[in-house]
Amino acid sequence: MKGRWLKTLLTGAFIVLLAGCSSKPVDRGQQYIDGKLNQPLELVNQPNTRGRPVNGKDFGDQVRAIQSATSGLYMRQSNAYRAIENWLLAGGDTRQLRQFGLDAWQMEGVDNYGNVQFTGYYTPVIQARYTRQGEFQYPLYRMPPRSKGRKLPSRAEIYSGALDERYAAAWSNSLMDNFIMDVQGSGYVDYGDGRPLMFFGYGGKNGWSYRSIGKVLIDRGEVKRENMSMQAIRQWADQHSPQAVRELLETNNSFVFFKPENFAPVRGASAVPLIAKASVAADRSLIPPGTVLLAEVPLLDNNGKFIGKYEMRLMVALDVGGAIKGQHFDIYQGIGPQAGHMAGFFNHYGRVWVLRAAPGVGTTLFSQIQNPHNASMLLGARQ
């Protein structure tokens, strides 16, 4: 759902850096206490960790949201959900998972030492008006009709007025805010008239190829790779003219259109309302929708620096992202500026165990795994 510049720029470079270093970096939460792992997911008797999840209530709320939104998805994972909730009620000790009929499959991480990449995304709130006026000069568009055999305009063409203004659903006061909502895939719009916020859900794309503006800035030498974040991009924009900002944004031809709705919950690609820090975007070829993750998430200070501590969280894979591939999860951070602040900094590493109901628990039976490298089989994915 989210072919987003932030996810793209935060993926490749750091993975290459982490995997290629002879020394083992730890500044972004990397750990090496489990030794080398040789499978995408490896069954372990119990996670090599101590502690309890800090978000049991949020996890329960997320499971209830799944049950209400899509009974089919809930039923495919219901044995695991019930076993996990019983485990939480008994204290949630990671050493007791097997006693509640749960198998833990450890993910090998981007470096084969268990270091799974975490980034973050959020739902922005944008100030806008119904019509073009004063400082509100930047349109947010509904999906226009497609002409057979013809592409929709590129971003640069749209910025130059290629779309009829009748498709403009709102006019904001910031081209950069529009772009960030574009790459997050949805957002809320405050029309400033006292009415409830309008949810702008994902309405479609123009079909042009995507290019990361973060990578463009790195390649130009305007932002150092190690300093790249959403905040760094905003800071760069604040220091440059509107013309320079527009030129940068136009390097990404991809453009997202929106579908305005009355105030509605934020939903992921699985059509389930998302609970902050209890849901993630994942690679469906590795992690089927509805899968539960037990994650050791690094804690950051307000400046995005790892403080040397972790917290245990239960999260459910309910969304997808164009740059979310393999051993990488995008954690949904919530709504508004504070959520955006943390989402912009998050590019760190932690350990992850996929939790599944053990064979014979409830009515779910698992066949023997013929190929341990086939993660979809390991997770019982439905094709």
List the helices and strands and how they pair.
Elements: H1 5-9, H2 12-20, E1 41-44, H3 56-69, H4 71-89, E2 102-107, E3 116-123, E4 125-129, E5 138-141, H5 155-159, E6 168-172, H6 175-184, E7 187-190, E8 198-205, H7 213-219, H8 230-238, H9 242-249, E9 256-261, E10 279-281, E11 292-300, E12 306-319, E13 328-335, H10 337-345, E14 347-357, H11 375-378
Parallel strand pairs: 3-13, 4-7, 10-12
Antiparallel strand pairs: 1-2, 2-14, 3-14, 4-6, 5-6, 7-8, 8-9, 10-13, 11-12, 11-14
Helix pairs in contact: 3-4
Give your account of this protein's structure.
The chain is of the alpha+beta class and about 375 residues long. It has two domains: about 5-120 and about 270-380, RlpA-like domain (Barwin-like endoglucanases, Beta Barrel), CATH 2.40.40; about 125-260, Ribosomal Protein L25, Chain P. The chain has helices at about 5-10, 10-20, 55-70, 70-90, 155-160, 175-185, 215-220, 230-240, 240-250, 335-345, 375-380; strands spanning about 40-45, 100-105, 115-125, 125-130, 140, 170, 185-190, 200-205, 255-260, 280, 290-300, 305-320, 330-335, 345-355. The protein has a six-stranded mixed beta barrel. Strand 11 and strand 12 (about 305-320) form a beta hairpin. Helix 3 packs antiparallel against helix 4 (about 70-90). The longest helix has 19 residues, at about 70-90. The chain starts with a helix and ends in a 5-residue tail after the last helix. Residues about 5-20 and about 365-383 have low confidence and may be disordered.
